[in-house]
Structure formats: structure tokens, C-alpha cells
Amino acid sequence: MTGFVVGLTGPMGAGKTTVAQMLRELGAKVLDADAVVHQEQSRGTVGYSAIVQQFGTKVLGEDKEIDRAKLAAEAFGDPAKLARLERIMHPRVIARVLEARSMLAEDAVLVVEAIKLLESSLRNACDQVWGGRAPREIMLERLAARGVAPAEASVRLGHQRSAEEFRAAADVVIANDGDREATREQVRRAWEALPRATA
CA nearest 110: which of 194, 2, 6, 27? Predict the structure, then answer.
């Protein structure tokens, strides 16, 4: 394999996308696992067929595409259903990451932004893990700004690892509590310390 892979994770609303954008500006290639999931759930894919088989047509919208809000409501309310969904999607995401890594130049850096990085073998495809963190109240505010109701946000955060667990599993922790320049400085320092990165 070539290049260097950073797995970027953390709870919902912890600022992963902001950190990923800063890394992109520094020269990293960024792969958003959620975008990959969205693509792999499109009608006509194996993922789509497996989800409909597991969850039924009630998770489809009027256009017959998977309605992500309906699927989330179905899966996040039941740990067993969530586990089934993850068994469908995780292998597809990992395959896409390995494909992207295989095409990296030797001195390139690939950042994989993934909320479920630590719960799957995707962790093994990464050379380092970076964890984003933010106070819970800020995470809830950010989720509310995305249209996630407070009750649903609490349920989703409850299904994720705690901030302490993310910090313990990370090689680098980036605080993202709203001070954008402070966050940028942390990202820059961590980027410059990467074995394959060039500042």
C-alpha cells in the first residue's frame, strides 16, 4: 500500500467535517465515509437491495430511494437493527477506502472521515486515528442546526462511544469547541508531524 491514511472520527457534531476541510486545504485527499454510504445505498446497488431485504419498503421514500431519515429512525431505535445495518454497509466502505489508498502517491495523505471508524475493521486500514471533540452542548447545538431534533440527537449520541473513549482511542485529539483558528492551529501542527505529510 502507498501513502499515509488518517482516520478522522469523533461523535456527531464534534467538528469532523471542519477538521477534514482544513486538512483538505493543507493538501490531503479526503474520503467522507458517510458520502460513500449514501452512494452505496442508492437504488440499483447491492447495499440498497440488502437494506430493503432487511428493513422492508417502509424505509423507502416516494421516489423509491432509501429515505435516510426513515432508515435512521428504524435502525437507531434498536441496537440489533443498527448492527444489521452496519454489517451491510461497513464492508462496502472499507472496500472503497482500500481502493482509494491503492491509488495514493507515496507521499500523499488520505483522510477518512468516519463516525464508525473504531467499531469496524476500517480502523486497521488507517495509520493514525484523529479524534474530534467538543462539549456536548455544542454538539447538540450543531446537530439542531442540521435539523436533528434534540431527542433524536440524544439517542444517536447515546449509541456512539463517549468522548473519553474517542480520546483514548485516538493518536491525535483535535478540540473543536467553536474557536476556528485554535482548531486550525491544532490541525496544522498535527499535519506537520505526519510521517508522509509535507507542510
Answer: 6
Q: Which residue has the cell 480520546?
A: 167
Torsion-angle region of 36 (φ positive above 0: left; ψ -120 to 50: alpha; else: beta): alpha
CA 58, distance to chain mean position in Å, is 25
> Could you tell me if 60 and 67 are in contact, meaning their C-beta atoms sit under 8 angstroms apart?
yes
Average pLDDT of span 92-99:
89
- The alpha helices in 10-162, defined as continuous H runs, are 16-26, 33-40, 46-55, 68-76, 79-102, 136-145, 150-158
pLDDT at 159: 65
Q: Is the pLDDT assigned to residue 122 strictly greater than 70?
A: yes
Can you tell me the distance from the alpha carbon of 137 to that of 134, in angstroms, rounded to the nearest whole number? 8
pLDDT, average across residues 122-130: 91
Cβ-contact 187, 24 below 8 angstroms: no
What number of CA atoms fall less than 13 Å from residue 121's CA on the CB side?
9
Would strands 29-32 and 172-175 be described as parallel, antiparallel, or unpaired?
Answer: unpaired
pTM for the model = 0.81
